[in-house]
């Protein structure tokens, strides 16, 4: 046994899957779907609250915006030592000795809590360096998180620790059915967020053990976590252009796992603009291997012709058009965009509009996907919104995209030529594998929502042009 | 894949190694229970600092690892056997030793032998299919060399007259044990490994250890009317490091070890909230006849209570009969006798069970041990 899921910090939000919007209680009239839609095409900019990036980094790495977790006593019994590779600079007090994705605070009961923070999903290591803002490509959400909560409970002692643990374990039990992806690396954050909304009153933020509105479907549609540095260009935060308007406010959803009152949200909102400012100031990491400048220069011309209209230009004349395209036009797996706009998520958009986390325009998805900025694209494998294509080389040549594949993980290695993590192409999907650990390591593009079709624009390039384009993409 | 510290938690399940807990004597007086509860409360306050965890990359080495790991916070040896007498009567035996470090190893040497550095606790339980209830005895020690703990000269872990001795010439699992249950029974067994040792050292876990999932047992038992010979099958777990303190946590476990007649051994642990609310999680592993261990898929495995038995002494309800279902697996587990509860400060039902059903497409049966914690009022 090697791997088990880590609990999600709710860093991400987007939209997901099927099923009808049935109200179990409230409001008198169903929400007007038109209110929660945007057309394909450009996403308008919206004013952002100013913030101090440095204070934002400090808050991101130290503040208790996720306010429940494992009592430190139990954590320290379980994990008395921290691998130095897991530390990150800029941490204060206890945090300085905790792994980067965990943050400590003392709760109102006097119990020290260790909770997952945003970096659980928004940091990843490449070539020995931890890159804050890079979406985690290896987070494991394939197993039942209740197991983790219960096993942590094994090391909890005393009444105060028990109360703190119970608060966390209850929330985990509430979201567990909705967070289990089929493949390691696939992220369930949108579905997890909808699941939390179904248990929380949008106005009082009181938790209800039984859902107040219909929860989302159990199987989350898979998401590849987008890099944070795209936020300096993007007008909406997520693939289907949910997350419009005040980004800092929308980011508060990261606190929703444990929240209990609007007052808590207000406290975090006081420093959320700083965190947003930090995220929007992040630079992509530079490609750490040699680049052939002449080849890259030829590739730049290819890029200008074939890519820039949608993904924007780099270099001297930076531009980013913030364009969304209908899913059927790009041809990429439509499940996620369809679920966002077929009415099956409208009750959550309405929840958001009535909550301190957003307004009526916060979640107004377009029926498709945004063409994301490509800054630092070399680092962001696997590709497409669902992470179905393991390398840029495969993305640019659809005939070599593997139907079934598996990351090499022992050790994992970045392939500077293919531009992505080393992987093996397999001749079988998840059906053929009975052992759960092995099954969950297979990316099976025949599963619903996991498809790797579409975005075939570069298929028409010849090999030389494609090689040049790849070389240029290393420079972004 | 990324190595995350919390993953250590999951490892617990694989090890299935929560030790056979502090089930105690069935004759404990209330005054002693109070003292025991107080002791437990004090143990909760003990700092864990200074007790080293298992070294990274540990692999079992014998006979060294049969012995104690003196720097570790806790250490447990637990043996459970299901036996048959020459007359065909089925018996169950459990013998466990627990060592608990009170003072971290770096501390100055004790000034006198009265300064407690570790606590020893041993427990024996015996049940006969024909009997009305299990009998047991519990002993405590203070780690005084020669009386309790691991004796390197003898190669045995012991408390007063009880011992489990590892034969240093046969490092691969040859051992003998002797135990008594007050004045009611005396047991002597010789144990030999039928399968290779299984290392229980999940990466990042705060404990390490090993199991012999299948030992053949033979020996004698004296229940006051002469010596009877017995044969059977046993399971030994030996774990050390930071183990959960029993009875002081919000979760409890139902733990099952089965040794099937088709040569497969199963270890299942069902973790649940002690207050009865919320979901339960099930983990387990199977050991094939050739000794290969594989994890059971917790998602497709089910462990369902079939029958509740109410302890007439405490009024506690225990689910003593279970159905186990999984891929290629459908077993009904019944206790040898219902009354195998031990009413101590940490109430527990810890008993010998029989299993019957299907495994890998064929009828099978077997014996094993079931331990139910967290059902009694606290």
Textual characterization of the structure:
- The complex is a heterodimer of chains A (476) and B (378).
- With 476 residues, chain A is of the alpha+beta class.
- Chain A has one domain (33-66, 117-143, 180-473).
- Chain A is built from 17 helices and 13 strands.
- Chain A has helices spanning 53-62, 72-78, 119-122, 145-153, 159-175, 189-199, 247-251, 262-269, 272-281, 293-306, 308-311, 327-330, 335-341, 346-354, 392-395, 436-439, 463-473; strands spanning 41-42, 70-71, 102-106, 112-116, 123-126, 129-132, 323-326, 368-370, 404-407, 414-415, 420-421, 423-425, 443-444.
- Chain A has a 3-stranded antiparallel sheet.
- In chain A, helix 10 packs across helix 17 (463-473).
- Chain B has helices at 7-15, 30-45, and strands spanning 74-85, 90-101, 118-128, 135-141, 148-151, 156-159, 162-166, 174-181, 185-193, 198-199, 207-222, 227-241, 251-260, 265-273, 281-287, 293-296, 302-310, 317-326, 329-335, 341-342, 348-359, 362-373.
- Chain B has 378 residues and is mainly beta.
- Chain B is built from 2 helices and 22 strands.
- Mean pLDDT of chain B is 81; it is low at 1-33.
- In chain B, strands 1, 2, 3, 4, 5, 6, 7, 8, 9, 10, 11 and 12 form a 12-stranded antiparallel sheet that branches. In chain B, strands 13, 14, 15, 16, 17, 18, 19, 20, 21 and 22 form a 10-stranded antiparallel sheet that branches.
- Chain B starts with 6 loop residues before the first helix and ends in a 5-residue tail after the last strand.
- The longest helix of chain B is centred in the N-terminal third of the chain and has 16 residues, at 30-45.
- Chain B has one domain (7-373): Beta Barrel (AttH-like fold), CATH 2.40.370.
- Chain B is globular, with a radius of gyration of 20 Å.
- Chain B is 7% helix and 49% strand.
Please tag this protein with its features:
heterodimer; A: 476 residues; alpha+beta; three-stranded antiparallel β-sheet; globular; B: 378 residues; mainly beta; AttH-like fold; twelve-stranded antiparallel β-sheet; ten-stranded antiparallel β-sheet; 2 helices
């Amino acid at each position: 046994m090697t791997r088990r899921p880590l609990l999600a910090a709710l860093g991400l939000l987007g939209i997901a899957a099927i099923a009808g919007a049935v109200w179990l209680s409230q409001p008198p009239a169903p929400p007007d779907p038109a209110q929660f839609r945007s057309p394909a095409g450009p996403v308008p900019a919206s004013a952002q609250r100013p913030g101090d990036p440095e204070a934002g980094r400090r808050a991101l790495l130290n503040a208790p915006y996720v306010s429940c977790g494992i009592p430190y006593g139990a954590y320290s019994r379980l994990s008395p030592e921290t691998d130095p590779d897991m530390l990150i600079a800029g941490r204060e007090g206890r945090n300085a000795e905790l792994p980067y994705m965990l943050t400590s605070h003392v709760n109102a009961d006097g119990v020290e809590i260790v909770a997952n923070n945003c970096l659980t999903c928004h940091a990843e290591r490449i070539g020995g360096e931890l890159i804050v803002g890079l979406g985690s490509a290896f987070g494991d959400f394939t197993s039942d998180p209740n197991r983790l909560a219960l096993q942590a409970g094994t090391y909890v002692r005393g009444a105060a620790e028990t109360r703190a643990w119970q608060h966390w374990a209850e929330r985990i039990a509430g979201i567990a059915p909705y967070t289990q992806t089929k493949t390691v690396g696939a992220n369930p954050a949108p579905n997890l967020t909808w699941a939390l909304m179904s248990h929380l009153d949008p106005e009082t933020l009181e938790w209800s053990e039984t859902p107040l509105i219909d929860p989302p479907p159990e199987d989350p549609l898979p998401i590849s976590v987008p890099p944070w540095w795209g936020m300096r260009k993007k007008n909406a935060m997520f693939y289907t252009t949910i997350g419009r308007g005040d980004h800092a406010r929308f980011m508060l959803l990261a606190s929703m796992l444990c929240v209990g009152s609007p007052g808590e949200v207000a406290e975090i909102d006081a420093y959320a603009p700083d965190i947003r400012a930090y995220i929007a100031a992040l630079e992509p990491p530079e490609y750490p291997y040699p680049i052939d400048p002449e080849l890259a220069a030829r590739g730049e011309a290819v890029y200008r012709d074939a890519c820039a209209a949608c993904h924007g230009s780099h270099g001297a004349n930076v531009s980013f058009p913030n364009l969304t395209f209908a899913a059927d036009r790009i041809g990429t797996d439509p499940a996620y965009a369809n679920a966002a706009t077929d009415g099956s998520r409208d009750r959550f958009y309405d929840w958001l509009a009535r909550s301190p986390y957003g307004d009526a325009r916060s979640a107004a998805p377009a029926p498709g996907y945004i063409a994301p900025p490509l800054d630092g694209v070399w680092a962001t494998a696997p590709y497409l919104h669902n992470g179905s294509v393991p390398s840029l080389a495969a993305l640019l040549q659809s005939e070599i995209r593997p139907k079934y594949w598996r990351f090499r993980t022992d050790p994992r290695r970045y392939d500077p030529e293919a531009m992505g993590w080393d992987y093996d192409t397999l001749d079988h999907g998840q059906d053929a594998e009975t052992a759960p650990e092995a099954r969950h390591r297979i990316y099976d593009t025949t599963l619903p929502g996991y498809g790797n079709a579409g975005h075939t624009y570069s298929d028409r390039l010849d090999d030389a042009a494609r090689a040049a384009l790849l070389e240029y993409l290393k420079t972004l | 894949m990324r190595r995350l510290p919390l993953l250590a938690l999951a490892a617990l399940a694989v090890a299935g190694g929560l030790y056979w807990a502090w089930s105690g004597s069935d004759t404990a007086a209330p005054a002693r229970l109070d003292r025991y509860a107080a002791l437990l409360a004090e143990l909760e306050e003990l700092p864990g600092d200074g007790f080293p965890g298992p070294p990274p990359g540990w692999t079992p080495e014998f006979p060294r690892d049969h012995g104690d790991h003196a720097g570790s916070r806790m250490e447990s040896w637990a043996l459970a056997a299901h036996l048959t007498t020459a007359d065909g009567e089925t018996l169950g035996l459990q013998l466990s030793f627990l060592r608990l470090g009170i003072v971290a190893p770096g501390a100055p040497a004790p000034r006198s032998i009265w300064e407690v550095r570790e606590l020893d606790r041993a427990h024996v339980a015996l049940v006969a299919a024909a009997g009305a209830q299990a009998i047991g005895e519990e002993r405590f020690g203070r780690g005084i060399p020669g009386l309790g703990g691991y004796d390197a000269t003898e190669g045995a872990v012991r408390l007063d007259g009880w011992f489990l001795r590892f034969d240093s010439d046969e490092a691969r699992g040859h051992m003998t044990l002797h135990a008594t249950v007050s004045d009611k029974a005396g047991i002597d067994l010789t144990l030999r490994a039928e399968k290779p040792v299984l290392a229980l050292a999940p990466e990042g876990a705060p404990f390490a250890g090993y199991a012999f999932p299948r030992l053949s047992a033979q020996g004698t038992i004296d229940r006051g009317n002469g010596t009877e010979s017995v044969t059977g099958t046993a399971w030994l777990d030996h774990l050390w490091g930071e183990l959960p303190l029993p009875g002081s946590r919000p979760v409890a476990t139902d733990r099952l070890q089965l040794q099937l007649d088709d040569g497969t051994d199963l270890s299942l642990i069902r973790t649940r909230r002690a207050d009865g609310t919320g979901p339960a999680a099930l983990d387990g592993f199977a050991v094939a006849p050739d000794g290969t261990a594989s994890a059971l898929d917790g998602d497709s495995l089910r462990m369902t209570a079939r029958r509740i038995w109410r302890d007439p002494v405490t009024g506690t309800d225990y689910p003593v009969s279970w159905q186990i279902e999984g891929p290629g697996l459908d077993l009904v587990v019944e206790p040898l006798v219902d009354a195998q509860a031990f009413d101590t400060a940490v109430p527990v039902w810890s008993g010998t069970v029989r299993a019957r059903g299907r495994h890998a497409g064929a009828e099978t049966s077997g014996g094993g041990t079931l331990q139910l914690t967290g059902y009694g009022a606290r």
